Amino acid sequence: MTRTPLHVVTSAMILTALLTCISAGQGSPTLLKGTADNEIWAGGVVAQHDGTTSFNTEIFMAGARFGRILTAPHGPGWLRGTLQWNFDVIPLFIVTNLQTAYGAEFDPIVGRWNFKDRGQTSPYLELAGGVVLTTSNIPPGQTSHFNIVPKIGFGWQVFTRPQRSIDVALHAWHLSNAWTAQRNPSANGIQLTIGYHWFRLKNRPSANLAHHTDHAKIDQ
Fold this sequence. Notes:
Layout: H1 5-22, E1 36-49, E2 57-69, E3 81-97, E4 101-115, E5 121-134, E6 146-148, E7 151-161, E8 164-175, E9 187-200, H2 205-219
Antiparallel strand pairs: 1-2, 1-9, 2-3, 3-4, 4-5, 5-6, 5-7, 7-8, 8-9
């Protein structure tokens, strides 16, 4: 059986989930206001264009993400968390199945709400949007090689070290040329991603980590 890039990404995500279940707790990062977050990630999308009843497009993508925690923890109960802003640079964007095309994507708006840490994991809700340019029109025909790509979803960060984490996420994904071409057969799909984070704490890491740990004990 031929393994597509999407199959490889899905297998990696399943392996990550299994390792998460059997791994021992190793602490969580300090998501304090001002903390910088850098990530490398890869993912895949299965999508269908309007008028079809089956997934007829597969997309593999990989890139880097840069962001920062904008707020201190806010909110009541399980909603308590921090607001984060990121941007994505995605130089690898490969479309297969219905056609073959190559491109790059830039997402200047990636808003994330990080919920309160739960042991060695931290769930989050994310809303993002950007643009993608490809070598040919998507889908083929009188469409466009320029498209916008909004997405919304959720994910989990699994902390392997106090300032390192593995990120697994699932998004509802949309692609549209916003009627910049004669036809706009938008695509809707599911995006799966896996990434690795490096957090950089503001000012003195050791002092901030101790401060965060004390507050976490009080919250509990």
